[in-house]
Write a structure and sequence with these properties.
Two copies of one chain form a homodimer.
Chain A lengths: L3 E7 L27 H10 L8 E5 L3 H8 L5 E5 L5 H15 L4 E6 L3 E3 L1 H16 L3 E6 L10 E7 L4 E7 L4 H10 L2 E11 H11 L1 H11 L7 H11 L5 H4 L7 E5 L3 E3 L6 H5 L8 E9 L5 E12 L4 E6 L2 E6 L6 H10 L9
Parallel strand pairs in A: 1-2, 1-4, 2-3, 6-10, 12-13, 13-14
Antiparallel strand pairs in A: 4-9, 5-11, 6-9, 7-8, 7-9, 8-10, 14-15
């Protein structure tokens, strides 16, 4: 649809996928689900909603040339952020671009690195969200929780509307006890971080709730697709505050709605996700790339370019990529950032993060 | 000494050190003990016994250029074998080279990949062996066994001589029960595979025990250091039988003696050797190269060129080299060749062995 503008947020690193993910090749540029990168899978879905020229990719400036290569001539708009400022500024900048193209434009805000399946359910849910957004709602996709995960924000679902539910309350990442209560309640959903709204409506929200961001975004509009664009973006990011759209806008907005996803969703958060999204063998092992696996159980063997030979391992994650190898127990994956912090501390190891 | 000719046997692969050891960079060309390769450590010891021009290195022809690079202009003689024929032909060819240089020459046959320490004890043992060899003996270095290892041949030690003992019997690799008996007996030594003898004496033994090898070696003599040398070596290896010096000569020789080593000796047979020859930390871990180790015990982390990050491992061997990574329990190291056999079976993986 000409009026739909998918906005793909592709600024993260996905550090938990080290050593495969690097600053210069973050999670969204890895082919974790198929032979395509997560970003290209996302663009594929977006292209079923709208023409390529309506797709906006917001990413770090240092990734722009790599992403252009990936796009192979696709006419998507890329906004290269000179500095990360969380989701609110990225969305405000995108909204101003959309408004210039089409004052009636509707934004479909997507993450670049989620797994969504089947696509036809996703498309249908987007249609529901779009028709809700038409009446001025900020619509979020909610995911039925499959476990009391404390890594997500939750949405307390309220009264039924035609194609969605009203949002009673946005709940920040809970503690374990609260998460269990939420799951038991059956009226709490995970906040997927994917949104649908009219560009004009979200801009109006910025004007009320984040007026400084609104002003900066408004002044950006005249520079889009001119020779001053890059300079204007730099100026915007130099001045804008860093804030999430959830905290900056959603929690304070009055007309918010939630569409419950009928697709399977995974935010591919860590190596643990591979057991959910790829088929393990009968002994619970997941392998990727060129591997030789003998007598292993519940282990991940991931060879990104080279060869991994492993035997006799139980519950062990082995990942080799670009001359760096990670070996750790699967149960300790939640602590992977502590290990990466140790790599960061060593000056001569920076090359293994870049 | 001008009369001493160290002969360094450097033809093996040391497959048990995969993925560090490759056909093109075998164990003897790895710096497993120090910053020097095992071969250069061996040449260093040989150079304390004899001038560089007396040192002979017998190796695979495909390794000659690599070894020449290592030698950095040292005047050692390299014999490049077009095909491996075990130790007897390599020694016969070397003997013929020595005899041409000095009919009174004494050969010190050494392995290229053993650990010997301290060198001054080794030098003293060689002197003892040389004076025994002067009286026409074939002298072998025996190692006091520290465990009932079934991986070595044993030597039953007989009557005392001035600087050595007579050999009562060479015993092939025993079963576990016999090995225990040998160790308990206190008169059995490991056969180190290192020998000392007069070139003329070993040639005479070839004439009696392996006449075909003798004839081929004799006809080789006139070609050494002529433009026909390479052709003559090719012809020798095309025709000669494959046999070990132990089985082909030592077991059938009458005048054999053994010098008991007073140096610490290790044949650096597998990754397990690293716990013997390198200092483990207080939790029993051995690390080499650029590694980050957190909460591991009794594990080996070996990064050959890249980075290995490991945590929470017990009794695990992790070796990364040239884009191949091996991860396996330390206790299963004796089975490493079975794993490598699986790599050999896959055509597209040959590059990880070459």
């Amino acid at each position: 649809m000409e009026r739909l503008f998918p906005v793909i947020l592709a600024g993260g690193v996905g550090e938990r996928f080290w050593p495969c993910s690097r600053a210069s090749r973050p999670k969204q540029l890895l082919p974790l689900l198929s032979s395509k990168t997560l970003l290209m899978e996302t663009i594929g879905r977006a292209a079923e909603l709208a023409p390529e020229k309506n797709i906006i990719i917001v990413t770090r400036r240092s990734l722009v040339s790599e992403i252009k290569k990936e796009l192979k001539g696709k006419a998507c708009k890329i906004i290269g952020e000179p500095a990360g400022r969380n989701t609110a500024p990225a969305i405000a900048a995108s909204a101003s671009w959309v408004l210039k193209k089409n004052p009636e434009g509707i934004m479909i805000v997507l993450s670049s690195d989620h797994r969504i399946n089947p696509v036809k359910n996703f498309i249908k849910n987007v249609r529901d969200a779009v028709s809700t957004a038409q009446s001025g709602y900020l619509v979020v996709f909610g995911i039925k929780p499959s476990r009391p995960d404390i890594g997500y924000g939750y949405i307390h679902q309220g009264a039924k509307m035609k194609h969605a539910y009203k949002v009673k309350q946005f709940c920040e990442k809970p503690d374990q006890k609260t998460a269990k209560k939420f799951v038991k309640s059956e009226n709490h959903l995970w906040n997927s971080g994917m949104f649908v709204w009219k560009a004009s409506v979200i801009m109006e929200e910025f004007r009320h709730q984040m007026p400084s961001v609104y002003k900066l975004a408004e002044s950006l509009e005249k520079s889009w697709n001119t020779k001053h664009e890059q300079q204007a973006i730099d100026s915007f990011y130099r001045k804008v505050v860093s804030e999430s759209i959830d905290y900056g806008i959603m929690e304070g907005a009055s007309k918010t709605a939630v569409v419950q996803a009928t697709f399977a969703w995974d935010d591919v958060g860590s190596w643990e996700a591979l057991w959910r999204i790829r088929k393990a063998d009968t002994r619970g092992n997941v392998t990727r790339g060129r591997t030789i696996s003998v007598n292993n159980t519940n282990s991940l063997l991931y060879a990104d370019g080279g060869l991994v030979v492993a035997s006799g391992l139980n519950d062990i994650v082995v990942v080799q990529s670009n001359n760096a190898t990670l070996v750790m127990p699967r149960t300790q994956l939640p602590d992977i950032k502590k290990l990466i912090a140790l790599v960061k501390k060593e000056k001569d190891l920076i090359k293994y993060l870049d």
